[in-house]
From TrEMBL:
Pfam families: SIR2. This is NAD-dependent protein deacetylase SRT1. It catalyses: N(6)-acetyl-L-lysyl-[protein] + NAD(+) + H2O = 2''-O-acetyl-ADP-D-ribose + nicotinamide + L-lysyl-[protein]. Zn(2+) binds at residues 142, 145, 167, 172. It comes from Panicum hallii var. hallii. Belongs to the sirtuin family. Class IV subfamily.
Length: 478
């Protein structure tokens, strides 16, 4: 749950039951239930997981209805709670990464999520096996060609409004829209239909960290029961569906899932975040000199922020006549003049923001205005995968690789991928996993709406999912 999302939502007096007491089953009972759940998961042929805000609390994102939840505090007149990290720097929890491994092992077939925090996608869970019922605060969509764009910054609006960016498809160029629903927005038909289909096919629906109060979403898990399936619930608070569940565990989701993974003899993979940055050098001739401009921007354009970079130190190690400079304002830009006949080596030290598991990373850039470099595009998915594998093996953030370079007569653009986070998870520890500091320098005629069970409230519609694009025209293959 995004705090920005909570603040952007339209005011709603009745948001359902909030501030419910937390329940903790005795340790021995929890262990017995974990063993029972592990057997249920192992025997399942079509496991579906239904997630709520409770799986992201250990990532530093407050829930809605807990004792310190967003709506609980708002009702008490205390405003929105503080998050331990900026929303865009939150990392997937142990549970998020365990679900990735369960899918890889062939046990988990589909996830239905009510969350808008994008942590399922950041974890590497396949988009085609995920239904985001309430949208995604980091995703935009083209209303014309339906291409989805996943960003590394929070989209400025909610309620399916226009954003400042346009579709990058050369044949389209339409204004993009956000995907997060406000209270009166209709649930996205395609997301909802795929979720229902999988619930009907499921022999087990595992509900994690959700109070199961928002309809129609909360009724989806029960569809499995009608077809002979079962429902299991892991949540710290009682839910309206507990009596219909085959198993209810009152405990920390991370601790329960870690226990299940241990019983299944499955590891929980580390989370490795890779951010992307675009470097552009443009120049123009001025007599015997060259006036050149360096820009370091988001791959999403000048108007998109680079939330993971705090400042950039630019130096010229082989040219004492060229003074170093520190760039502190975005978009990062530097203008200089130099002799056209003299090449130089430019070193850029990217200083990262809080929440990154490394302090900085450096990119070297040889510049020769009289020599034309070759353009190339590497297999983005392969390069990033190799970069992340190397980072996991060496437990070292700050590593970077060039993904593509485009060279024109008077301009050069390069895109680099940089590992900024490596988070490991201890299956025997239910504490919050923190980043390690490596020290390195158009619509339905009868749309369904979501509302609170037993109330007259409505929050929710994400766009139609046809294609999923990450950057420019590159597909995202998690």
């Amino acid at each position: 749950m995004s705090l920005g999302y909570a603040e952007k939502l339209s005011f709603r007096e009745d948001v359902g039951t909030v501030g419910m007491p937390e329940i903790f089953d005795p340790p021995e009972l929890v262990q017995n239930k974990i063993e029972e759940l592990a057997v249920m998961v192992q025997k399942s042929k079509h496991l579906v997981v239904f997630t709520g805000a409770g799986i992201s609390t250990s990532s530093g994102i407050p829930d809605f209805r807990g004792p310190k939840g967003v709506w609980t505090l708002q009702r008490a007149g205390k405003g929105v709670p503080n998050a331990s990290l900026p929303f865009h720097r939150a990392v997937p929890s142990l549970t998020h990464m365990a679900l990735v491994e369960l899918e890889r092992a062939g046990l988990l077939k589909f996830i239905i999520s009510q969350n808008v925090d994008s942590l399922h996608l950041r974890s590497g869970f396949p988009r085609e096996k995920l239904s985001e019922l309430h949208g995604n605060s980091f995703k935009e969509i083209c209303p014309c060609c339906k291409i989805e764009y996943l960003r590394d910054f929070e989209i400025e609006t909610i309620g399916l409004k226009d954003t400042p960016r346009r579709c990058s498809d050369k044949n389209c160029g339409a204004r993009l829209k956000d995907t997060v629903l406000d209270w009166e927005d209709a649930l996205p038909p395609e997301e909802m239909n795929s979720a229902k289909e999988h619930c009907r096919s499921a022999d087990l629906v595992l509900c994690l960290g959700t109070s199961l109060q928002i309809t129609p979403a909360c009724n989806m898990p029960l569809m499995s029961i009608k077809n002979g399936g079962r429902v299991a619930i892991v949540n710290l608070q009682a839910t309206p569906k507990d009596k219909k569940a085959s198993l209810v565990i009152h405990g920390l989701v991370d601790k329960v899932i870690a226990g299940v993974m241990s019983k299944l003899n499955l590891r929980i993979p580390p989370y490795i975040r890779t951010d992307l940055v675009q470097l552009t050098l443009r120049h123009s001739l001025k007599k015997k000199c060259v006036r050149w401009t360096l820009r370091v921007t988001s791959i999403h354009g000048l108007r998109a922020p680079l939330p993971f970079i705090q400042s950039i130190e630019v130096s010229f190690p082989e040219r004492p006549d060229m003074k170093p400079v520190v760039l502190k304002e975005q978009p990062f830009s530097l203008q200089r003049e130099t002799s056209m006949n003299r090449s130089f080596f430019m070193l850029l030290k990217l200083n990262f923001s809080d929440g990154c598991s490394c302090l900085s990373s450096s990119i070297g850039w040889p510049v020769d205005f009289q020599k034309q470099k070759d353009s190339f595009v590497r297999d983005r998915t392969l390069v990033i995968r190799e970069l992340q594998c190397a980072a996991e093996h060496e437990s070292c953030a700050g590593q970077q690789e060039i993904l593509e370079r485009e060279c024109l007569p008077r301009a050069e653009t390069a895109i680099h991928a940089i590992v900024t986070n490596i988070v490991s998870y201890d299956m025997g520890d239910d504490k919050v996993p923190l980043p390690r500091d490596s020290g390195m320098n158009c619509g339905s005629s009868n749309p369904a709406k979501r509302n609170m069970e037993g109330t007259g409230c409505y929050p929710a519609s994400a766009p139609k999912k046809l294609k999923y694009f990450f950057l420019k025209d590159e597909k995202l293959n998690c």
